[in-house]
Amino acid sequence: MPLKDVYERNFDEDVPAAGQSSRGCPECGGLVHTNSIETTCEDCGLVLEDRPIDHGSEWRALDGGERTERKRTGPPLTPARHDRGLSSEIGFDRTDANGIALSGRKTGQLARLRRENRRGRWASKAEKNLAHGLSDVRRMSGALNLARSLRDQACQIFRIAAEQGLMRGRSIEAMTAASVYAACRCAGLPRPLEEITAVAAVPHDRVQNAYTVLNRELRLPAMTVGPAGYIPRLASELDISPATRRRAADLARVMIAAGAISGCKPAGIAAACLYQAGLEQGERVTQRVLADAAGITPVTLRTRWKHLQALLID
After folding, report:
1. DSSP string spanning 157-203?
2. Which of 41, 91, 156, 209 is the most core-located residue (most Cβ within 10 A)?
3. Number of domains composing the chain
4. Which domain holds residue 277?
5. Does residue 86 lie in a domain region?
């Protein structure tokens, strides 16, 4: 029986290479054969091709049927877990793979195995702290509706901080919140520190100190978010029209060109531009609502708005 009748793919068979056997070896004209490793000439031994690519499907049917159950090797590695997603879990189901109920003896055995598996999950105290910190990062990322890429970046920052010994003498919760804030800063996402600390389990000053340590020791590529970066977020939160949003972005560029944002909070500049744009477009938004959304006081908003009006008059 030929091998091709046994195996579905003839990737590892010694057969003439397609497109090579007709013209033969370019050196001696001999017969060319290929196997799972290389394509060679039978006469002179010339290697024509090395390590061919397997163009077959990347899934496998493990049931031996007609490929109705297509399986892969499992989920990809993720930095969001301490073991990068390679841990084993023993479920609480009381039936086997065929749906047959387990006996009491087998259920007790699984309970003991589950307990020992839980005890042996962490090899050291440092690994247990890492797992606790990554779990807290996932919790805060979910509360802030961050993208999965940002969540993974925050987990990677926390993992590097733990490997370099920056956790010693500091709170795990503070470092996790600082890692989330650092990921937002590195991505240029306009998320103020007050918003991060609102879902954290530690006060604002401890998160600020932890972020200072991360920024100094890891030399993070943090990006500065200008007033224009806060305008889409505030406009979406307050349901402001696109025309008002575009006018506010133009006003923000006017203030940036005039150098009137030095020493000012970017969210306050964005709120003042939105307020002025709303007045021009006939879309009234109260100062109190804008100030609360931007995390500033109405007095600060009025001060920035007066500066903007002075620039527009000039």
Report:
1. HHHHHHHTTTTTTS-HHHHHHHHHHHHHHHTT----HHHHHHSSSS-
2. 41
3. 3
4. 227-313
5. no
